[in-house]
Each structure stands twice: as C-alpha cells, then as structure tokens.
Amino acid sequence: MNITVIIPTYQRPKDLLRCLEALKRQTRPVDELLVVIRDNDSETWKFLEDFDPESLPLKTLKVSVPGVIAAMNVGLDSAFGDIIAFTDDDAAPHQDWLERIEAHFLSDKSVAAVGGRDWVYLGSQLHARKLTEKVGRVQWFGRVIGNHHLGVGEAREVDVLKGVNMSFRRSAIQGMHFDERMRGTGAQVHFELAFCLALKRAGWKLVYDPAVAVNHYPAQRFDEDQRAQFNEIAHANKVHNETLILLEHLSPVPRSVFLLWTVLIGNRSKRGFVQLLRFLPSEGNLVWYKWKATMIGLWQGWQTWKKS
Fold first, then answer.
1. How far apart are alpha carbons 97 and 133 in whole angstroms?
2. pLDDT tens digit string along 122-181?
3. Cα Rg for the chain, rounded, in angstroms?
4. Does the chain have fewer CB atoms within 10 Å around its N or its C terminus?
5. The pTM of the whole model exceeds 0.85
6. What is the maximal distance between C-alpha atoms in the chain?
7. Which residues of 104-117 are buried (b: 16+ CB within 10 A; e: fewer)?
C-alpha cells in the first residue's frame, strides 16, 4: 500500500526538523510526504529551502486560511496514498511507526483508521502519569475518554483517535473533509472526534495500538489556546466543538442526558455545577470563569447544531 504522511506546520521549524529526521529513519519508508505551510510563515519556508530531504519524497503545500483544519484538508485533497497518515510538527514518530500502521490495514480490510500512543515529553523528561487501557471511547451519554498518551495493552477497537498519531484508509474516507465548523484559529480542538465518529457510524473499525507510537513534545501555539494557560475564548471554542459533534452523533435520549450531565455535573475540563463546587476551594474565582466559558461553549455548540 502506498503511504502518504501529512504534517501541518506553523512557525515551528526546529520542531519540524526533528519530525522530518524521524521520518527519514522509518523502517518502512514513506511514499509521499506533504508538509502544509501557512502562506505568511516565512520562517518555515526559509527553513525548507535549506533543508536536505535526502530520501524523503517531500512536497510543500501552501494554505492561506488559519487553523489546522484548513491545512489538513489541503493535504487530504493532494494526497495519493492508499493510507493517509497524520502527525504534528512537534512529534517524532518511532522508527516502526509506518511499518506497524501498514500491517494493521493489510490484516483487516474493515479497518478504516489506525492510531496509537503519543509519548508526551515536557522538555527532555517523559511526562509521567498513570497508564490505562481505557482509551479513545465515547460513553453512551457523550462523555469522551481520551488518554491516548497513556494507553497500554493490546491493539483494540476505539471510537476516536488523536490527531498527532492517526492514519486512514483512503477508500474509507473518500470525499470526506475535516469539519470546518470547528472553532479556533489554530489548534481547533476535537476536530478528530467528528471525523472518527463519522467513520464509526458508517460501520468501519478504528484501531488503537499503543505500539504505533510517536514521541510528542508539545510546542508553543500561536493562537488563543495556550495549552496550560486558561483562556476563556479557547475553552468556549473547545466546548463548542465537542458539543456540536456529540449532538450530531448521539440519538435523542443520550443527547438529552449529555446536555443535562454537562450542565449539572461535567468533568475536570467541562465544569458543570457539581464540578464548580468541587474546585471552588482550590481554584477560587478562576472556577467561575471556567464554568462560564463551559456554559457559553455549550450554548454556542447547541446553536450551531440547530442551524446545521
């Protein structure tokens, strides 16, 4: 099977260099490598002019619209591979990344998507957290369990993969694009959720295999979403995106339970009333801003869903 790898990048040439060097070392070489760059990103364009791709079949694509979704869709429209794999510019795939991906697609024609673990590094130190087998699931009432960076165990079916480490069978996604209704000017959190759930509804299998691995060095973002730093707009955008996707995915009864659960309870990332009370002693006034942003995002997601 021919394999295309797509890397969206923006103003992170040092990270991109590490990613490209990792792709040079693949035991199963890439057949097409597409790096998608913003038209005004002069730093990255200059870096690639001087970069020696050696054996990499590297092509550059230009995008003028901000956000990762526009870049990924440009890549999708240009890719020729039977398998289309995505990773981030701040990731470094393990040497057998493509070899393991291809093996899964070859072994089962009903598999539409394959992904795996991203080993998160903070600087040079591995981010130590409790590992789990509960990865990539959407519970019946809409609670999303990620944990892709903490996955252990055997390969298994999941509901959703993570953008830094995901690949798709071209014939399964023919005509599909990442949802441009996702809000945000950079990261556009949860874009992969909509794509993956659409494949699940169509009856395809999605496989998560912890051995299909990349090292992930979360780098600076150049939008309102600054990862560890709370931003009301970024948080509301994230909740909007997830709400819109789940309202479209869930049937009527689970949809109603999802809305009620989000308002009354929520979780650590989406603060409902119970979570507001839970974190009030430790976070003080900040918890009110997080709760407000959650409710705004929930309402905006509902409105976008109704209009759609």
1. 20
2. 888 898 789 999 999 999 999 999 999 999 999 999 999 999 999 999 999 999 999 999
3. 19
4. C
5. yes
6. 57
7. bbeeeeebbbbbbb
